[in-house]
Each structure stands twice: as structure tokens, then as C-alpha cells.
């Protein structure tokens, strides 16, 4: 999808440059007669029409995307009940507290509401392991603690947790230039 988006943006920019260049050249500047002669050529008409169509399509896509864009919800609804909502910062705080231990440094905790009725939450934890050991077991232990703490606080299931370990060692390379 990113590749298609990049191609669309490049086509849009090229079309915009062609349309603006033809318009500005035919209306302003010392070479308006040359641009008028260029615009009399049939293939330039086709090129200008195609570029205008590309710009209109891109503007329509952006307008539809702006209208259809929904902000990410900041509240979790317990068991889909509209009356009971829990704020995401509260879940992040509980997750950070539950994930902390002596062997791990918590870098970042994020939470995203999921589900059609906003009754599920996905928590992502980025951590740095301070020990050389089994990271899979350490991650599963953290995942279980966070999931139990959130479900205990909420009183209903619907929490998924993902733990990702960041590199714990950095290498600095110095080179001397003569």
C-alpha cells in the first residue's frame, strides 16, 4: 500500500507542476506567446487535461479520506457497555506498573482500543532486558503479569499484550583520521 501511495503522490506532484507551469507561463512572464503556441498543439491539450484529471482525482481521494477519518478512541468500554468507560492512560499506568521488574527497564507503553464496540484493548510494551537470559520466558512472564493486572482492574477479559525487547547494548565506533 505504501508503494501505491508513493506513486500517487509522485503523479500528483508532476501533474501539479505541469498544470501550474502551463497556467503561469501562459498568463505571466515574458514568454506568454511561446506558451500560447505550445498550448495550441493537440498533445499538450491532452497532457494538460490528463494532469488536471489526476489532480482532481487526488483531491477527491483526500477529501473522502478527511471525511471518513475517525479519531482513535481514548476510552475503553467495558464489555461493550456504553455507560462504563475506562481511560487509556489508566491502562497504560497499570501496564507499566505490572511490567516492571528488576531485570527489565520499561522504555515505552502504548495502548490502542480495538473492537467494533470498543471493548478490547491492545497493549504494546517496549522494554530493555538488563540480563542475558531467556528473553522469551521473560517476555511471557511480563505479558502474563500485565494481562492479569489489566483484567483484574477491568473485571472483564479483552486485553491483549505484546512485549518487544529493544537492543540493550550499543556499540560506539571511533576512527581516527589523519
TrEMBL record:
Transmembrane segments: 7-26, 46-68
UniProt KW keywords: Membrane, Transmembrane, Transmembrane helix
Tree of life domain: Bacteria
UniProt name for this protein: Alkaline shock response membrane anchor protein AmaP
